[in-house]
Specification:
Mean pLDDT: 82
Oligomer: single chain
Structural class: mainly alpha
Helix content: 40-55%
Shape: flat
Length: 131
């Protein structure tokens, strides 16, 4: 993208491409070998426990003998592009315009469900008479 041998200066090339000059000179640091080993362990643990977040993964790593902080685990997870797979709070509200509409809809569903299939605890148990 940027040609250092071009007659147009690097600054001018960056302006034409609408990118910052700092990003041209930036060279990413290599990932330390220790972090790569931890990332391999995190990947293995994430495949085994896809619901585990940074706190649980930190605990699992501690059991294996790797003392690492939760924030570092979260940073490595973000770098690897993995996240815990679980239901987030309030995810069902996207289908409704507001919370009261969602509550009303859920209420209607529960009323229908309770009428369609009565729960065994609703049945009245008759007393057994002996003779």
């Amino acid at each position: 993208m940027i040609d250092r041998e071009h007659e147009l200066s690097i600054t001018s090339q960056a302006e034409v491409l609408q990118i910052s000059r700092g990003s041209i000179y930036y060279l990413p640091r290599p990932v330390p070998e220790a972090d790569l080993a931890i990332m391999r362990r995190l990947d293995r643990l994430h495949l085994e426990f896809p619901f585990a977040g940074s706190r649980m993964l930190r605990g699992l790593l501690a059991v294996e003998g790797c003392k690492i902080g939760r924030r570092h685990v979260k940073t490595l997870m973000r770098r690897m592009g993995i996240e815990a797979l679980y239901r987030r709070p309030r995810t069902y509200l996207g289908a409704y315009n507001n919370v009261s509409e969602a509550r009303a809809s859920i209420g209607r569903y529960l009323d229908f469900y309770n009428r369609a299939s009565e729960h065994p605890s609703v049945y009245v148990v008759e007393e057994k008479r002996l003779c």
